[in-house]
Specification:
The protein is mainly alpha-helical. The protein contains 1 helix and no strands. Helices cover 69% and strands 0% of the residues.
Length: 48
């Protein structure tokens, strides 16, 4: 039971990290394509 819960949380954490990395990567590519640097414009992503 406990092992199943740990595996589920681990898989969820990996999935969230993957999604977050893809969003950041897309944002960087979009910035480079437009030639605009605006780091403060990426709202919603704050790592505390």
């Amino acid at each position: 039971m406990l092992l199943n819960v740990l595996i589920c949380w681990f898989a969820l954490a990996i999935a969230l990290a993957t999604i977050l990395c893809r969003q950041i990567h897309k944002a960087k590519i979009a910035d480079q394509a437009m030639g605009i640097q605006h780091p403060e414009d990426h709202s919603g992503i704050y790592l505390a």
